[in-house]
Amino acid sequence: MPMISLCMIVKNEEKVLARCLDSVQGIADEIIIVDTGSEDSTKSIAQNYTDKIYNFQWIDDFAAARNFAFEKATMEYILWLDADDIFMEADQKKLLELKKTLDPSVDAVAMHYHLAFDAKGNVTSSLKRNRLVKRSRNFRWEGAVHECLVVGGNIFNSDIAVTHKKERADTVNRNIEIYERRLEKGEAFSPRDLYYYANELLDHQRHQEAAEYYIKFLDTKLGWYEDNIAACGKLSDIYSHLKDWDNAMKFSLQSFNYDVPRAEACCRIGFLFLNKNMVKQAAAWYQIATQLERPTDSLGFTSYACWTWLPHIQLSVCYDRMGLHQLAYEHNEKARAYIPNDERVLYNKRYFEDILKIHDIAKS
């Protein structure tokens, strides 16, 4: 059974660090904590779990800090987490089982990263990341911000999930400030930098600037295909926000240049047509979304709504406007199978049942 080093970089994580480390009890055989300048009790908390705590002088470079942490690991495999990540109990069990059965030829293990949840705790968005890597392969992190672990070889695609439970709000400006200091120094941005700087601009509601940098990123033609797809989606959303429907449609369609159609793009296009009251066209695109098979090997962002209930509830809207109430009811029921207690589908259920009852009475 392989031994695992958990490697983490932390700063002022006293509220969440114990929660994270408790979730890897019995999984990690070694815990490496690299502190980048904590001013709270983070290091004191870490001492309850490990004596391998190191200081790293912060240089506005997350990859450098993570590579430093990896260099301190001694076990066969390295697992990485952020302090506001945890393994839920079911995923702890899955990871322990994987640890017992992992083929030694595996160089990296990809895991789900659950990012957002609805009011009932159901996952609404996620992506995949390579979380467990063979130390002897010397995989390295790249990128000062939104760093990426560059891996290769035999990658095992697992169903284990890391759950992100963000608690802090005081880091909201950190990444964009790092990017802008780099720009002030005249540093050239890589395609990945352009993409993630655009993300930061969008998060800060700087829509025009974000669009400019997403387009710069796409124009390099050097981006990872998942980032290309995501950039097209974000550009479509930006232009929808700006009421520029032509560009919104253009970039939704452009996403098809990089892979087979995704449900997220089809739902965007359906929304654009519905917003212009082009109901038949909207219905056609939502129908396509319901027929697509969600890729299981993608490391990109997934909006679960687009692959499950959303196109069905939108089809119920479209068919209602077209006077096709039986079809509208059927698609609302398909949406209800995914979100049975949702107020919207329950309202629709009553609405369509009343209409169909009236029609039945009229026929009789």
UniProtKB/TrEMBL annotation:
User: Which CDD domains has this protein been placed in?
Assistant: Beta4Glucosyltransferase
- InterPro entries per the UniProt record, alphabetical: Glyco_trans_2-like, Nucleotide-diphossugar_trans, TPR-like_helical_dom_sf
What are the entry keywords? Answer: Transferase
Q: Does the keyword Transferase apply?
A: yes
Gene Ontology MF terms: transferase activity
All residue ranges annotated as the Glycosyltransferase 2-like domain in the record? 5-119
**PANTHER family xrefs:** GLYCOSYLTRANSFERASE, POLY-BETA-1,6-N-ACETYL-D-GLUCOSAMINE SYNTHASE
Q: State what protein this is by name.
A: Glycosyl transferase
